[in-house]
Amino acid sequence: MPIDALILNTAVLDLRSARFDFIDRLVGAGGLAKCPPTAMPSYTPDELEDIVAEGGATPGGCANVAPLLARAGLRVAVGAWIGAGPHEGLDIQGRAFRDRLAAAGVDVSALRVHPSLPTGTTFIHDTPTGERGGIAYFPNANDDFDFDVFEREADRLGPSLVHYMYSGLSARGDANGGRDLADFLFRCRERGALTMVDSHTLTGDPAAVIAGRRPVEAYRLLEPLWACMDVFFTSLDEARMILNTLEPDHALDLDDADAVGLGFLEWAAARAGGGRPRLFGVTVSDGAIATRIAPDGRPAPILRVRSRFLSGEVVDLVGAGDSFRAGLILYLTRFRAEFEAGRCDVETAVQAGNLMASLFIKAPLQDRCRWIPPADSLLRVATGRRDYTSFGDLLVDLRTV
């Protein structure tokens, strides 16, 4: 039976510990960077096993999306490389990643064991002061994403939607200036799948890069993708950096979030072209700015959709954008006919993303799916008009609608 969604690339295990003070020396205090495999710290398998056993490990990347969809009742699979090792044929990180996905009901049959590279790993320094510590991402096997291998998995699984994570973070996936990924997406479309891409560059100090209007070369990888992405949502900071890179002479006030969102979407819609409908957006701190693009290439009025689900205590914001996209995927797979007819309800689609993200960032780190309800319940609440001032009331309504 065809599946609802196939989430591709970026199998990564996030490891958190106060012992990771080396990260601040590697990327700077509070810094964020993609690091070469040669800089990977030499922790023994026993030491890594201890960190996992202590609760210091959470799957990231695809695991910020796929388990949420599975919990909501969608048929979802993940396709990515994980590393080989002595633990049921996998390394510590790969086994933990696979087992968490499988336990959440995700189809892991498209996970492939890389013959030489370890599973992608992120080291996060939990500082004793509570301030943000450094984050070092080691792509490892993710750097070798093989479109031939995973296109066969897409053919086998027949997904309604293919979501690639992330443009900008895989050496082989980004090869030929992003054209290999574009060709793959076109072929997925030919087989009947909607296509969705998330971009990420792990820019270490985005505020300084934005203020200096400095280009980020990895965003040039998006240029061949505009014509083959059905869905594209990016963060406000990334929208700023994309414009500074691809449209350096723009006159937008980068301190005006609404102006950036509107300007970016008008600019992106012009590059998407016609032929089929699109849904593009920019996420902001309290929701998203989004537009539906008709098959003739004309954008609908751009909407500023404020989240109705802001109440509640945030546990961790890592993965917030990924979980927002999980809500979009849920909406698109349930209302695909409306989307393809150019009648996508932009406000409901965005509120589905807002709601999924709200539930994700307020859940315990070791149980990020705790509050995720069945798809019908989530969509009924997303379609409603209530602005929740109590997270408890939101959870009650999700259980009773």
Structure commentary:
With 401 residues, the protein is an alpha/beta fold. The chain has 14 helices and 14 strands. It has helices at residues 22-27, 45-53, 66-71, 92-103, 147-157, 179-190, 206-211, 236-246, 257-272, 320-334, 336-340, 346-361, 375-383, 391-400; strands at 5-8, 11-17, 32-34, 57-61, 76-87, 111-114, 120-126, 132-138, 161-167, 194-199, 231-235, 278-284, 287-293, 303-306. The protein has a five-stranded parallel sheet with strand order 6-5-1-9-10, sandwiched between helices. Strands 3-8-7-2-4 form a five-stranded mixed sheet. The chain has a four-stranded mixed sheet with strand order 11-12-13-14. It is globular and about 55 Å long.
A few lines on this structure:
The chain contains 14 helices and 14 strands.
